[in-house]
Amino acid sequence: MDTAHVVQSLLVAVGLSAATGFRVFLPALIAAVGARAGVLPLSESFQWLASAPAIVTLSLAALFELGAYAIPWLDHALDVIATPAAILAGFLLSAAVLVDMDPVLRWSLAVIVGAGAAALVQVPTATARGVSTWTTAGLANPLIAAVEAAGATLLSILAVLAPLLVLLLLVLLAVVAWRRFRRATVASAASARF
Question: In 10 A of CB 96, how many CB atoms?
């Protein structure tokens, strides 16, 4: 196992898995197209992902998913199944792109990295859509859905073509989230004193 190759596979896995937290099928479609174009290597048991039938099926599923999230009441219903589906998709996409590894290591990393990254993105996005549904009667949900779709697309393309940028982007997002969390915690503590 070449260390640089393992690190690159991990970055691709993290990026694609995190993207499944925004949309379940779009990252898989982008990975499939990347594999079909010869840009993204797949592990042996996932070579089928680059097949024409898989790409057509993923294209239809991605189109349905994108359209469904533009409908406020339907996007809320989808979130019920999207969270476990995103975690499963993150797990499977990670296993697909973690190549040239011992199977035990590959599947272990797929659980930790893939399912973990997907959950870390999916849970807050589902929460944000829920808050949007209650505070705007769903009127802002199509905007949120468009931002999430753009995020899934950008993150997936970066994961396939420039995995190091994914790491930088995720670190930047973590820093921003941490600062907002700290600011909210300090503000909450200050208001609790009065």
Answer: 28
Answer yes or no: are the C-beta atoms of 42 and 104 closer than 8 Å.
Answer: no
Q: Are 130 and 79 in contact (CB under 8 A)?
A: yes
What amino acid is encoded at 12 in this protein? Answer: V
- Return all residues near 144 (Cβ < 8 A) that are at least 6 apart: 128, 129, 132
What is the H or E stretch that residue 186 is in?
helix 163-193
Find the DSSP H helices in 69-140: 72-97, 103-109, 116-136
Q: Tens of pLDDT along 175-186?
A: 887 887 777 676
pTM to 2 decimals?
Answer: 0.84
Instruction: Return the H-helix or E-strand segment holding 58.
Output: helix 52-68
d(CA 90, CA 129): 20
Query: Measured between alpha carbons, how far is 193 from 182 in angstroms, rounded to an integer?
Result: 17
46 CA to centre of own chain: 19
Tell me the pLDDT tens digit for each residue of 98-133: 998 889 999 999 999 999 999 888 888 887 777 877
Crossing angle of helices 141-161 and 72-97, rounded to 10°? 10
